[in-house]
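Try this one yourself first.
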């Protein structure tokens, strides 16, 4: 019989060989006929299935709330400085994206895993916080530089309210909020931040859809799908900042000497 040549490359999300491009088997014309939107496209290409409308709407909300947070944050700052050094769009964008990580915008997957494990093990929030402190670990998804109990983050309010209204259970969000109750007793800035809130609600959303096995949910998160969402969202803002700097004809940035403490090597 025929012996098939073994392939060197495996792919399972899209196919452009036929008459029509497909996303997870759905022809591109159907994507538009059914008005799946960017949330539907993400659910096809990332999760390989069509999620219900309340879930695709939620994905779109995440993209919208993470799109930008002003020029002062680490990533926008890098993108701006790079654009002002005369670099092109892609280099400036890449420079901004490279700041996304455990302190800025890239805490989502780790936060989701921490909160899921807390819910799974039944450890109460106070013990969770105490244990993390003893282990000298930061709780991912907790803490903000400028947002606090007195200056709440409207993005978090929007996401929380949607989850409460549309998901069959918000067990992970509720657990994260219990953690916030404990951490904010220490310091009012130790709130559930936008990364942590999206992370907790996303797990609740995936579980509400019943479209995934529990092991699949964990695997997708371990593979970085939630930080991927922040990255896609914030790319919108970074591109905006880069275009803005070019439009405003901003020249090379040099940080002012008077804003740098020059310390002796021996003192540092
Ligand atoms: N868990 C436990 N304790 C914390 C946390 C946390 N996540 N964050 C700060 N603390 C504690 C610190 O240990 C420190 O305690 P100490 O005074 O006893 O030493 C105190 O709070 C102040 O810490 P700072 O590092 O000065 O806090 P800062 O405001 O600079 O940090 C940051 C803000 C970077 C967001 C921090 O809270 C953090 O790393 N959080 C976890 C990562 C995270 O969720 N990042 C996403 C932020 S939202 C976004 O980027 C879109
Ligand atoms: C952001 O969305 O960039 C922020 O929450 C981080 C910040 O410091 O504002």
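Now uncover the answer:
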């Amino acid at each position: 019989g025929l012996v098939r040549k073994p392939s060197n490359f495996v792919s399972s999300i899209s196919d452009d060989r036929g008459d029509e491009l497909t996303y997870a088997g759905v022809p591109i014309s159907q994507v538009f006929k059914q008005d799946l939107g960017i949330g539907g496209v993400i659910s096809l290409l990332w999760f390989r299935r069509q999620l219900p409308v309340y879930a695709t709407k939620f994905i779109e909300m995440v993209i919208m709330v993470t799109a930008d947070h002003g020029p002062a944050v680490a990533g926008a700052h890098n993108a701006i400085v790079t654009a002002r050094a005369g670099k092109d769009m892609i280099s400036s964008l890449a420079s901004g994206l490279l700041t996304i990580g455990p302190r800025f915008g890239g805490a989502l997957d780790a936060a989701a895993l921490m909160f899921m494990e807390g819910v799974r093990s039944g450890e109460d929030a106070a013990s969770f916080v105490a244990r993390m402190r003893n282990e000298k670990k930061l709780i991912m998804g907790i803490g903000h530089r400028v947002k606090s109990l007195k200056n709440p983050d409207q993005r978090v309010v929007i996401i929380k309210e949607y989850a409460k209204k549309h998901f069959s259970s918000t067990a992970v969000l509720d657990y994260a909020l219990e953690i916030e109750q404990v951490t904010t007793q220490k310091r009012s800035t130790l709130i559930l931040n936008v990364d942590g809130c999206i992370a907790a609600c996303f797990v609740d959303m995936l579980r509400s859809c019943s479209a995934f096995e529990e092991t699949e949910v964990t695997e997708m998160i371990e593979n970085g799908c939630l930080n991927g969402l922040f990255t896609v969202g914030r790319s919108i803002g970074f591109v905006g900042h880069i275009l803005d700097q070019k439009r405003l004809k901003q020249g090379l940035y040099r940080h002012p000497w008077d804003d740098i403490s020059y310390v002796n090597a021996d003192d540092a």
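Discussion: The mean pLDDT is 97. The pocket of (2S)-2-hydroxybutanedioic acid (ligand 2) is lined by residues 69, 73, 105, 145-146, 194 (CB under 6 Å).
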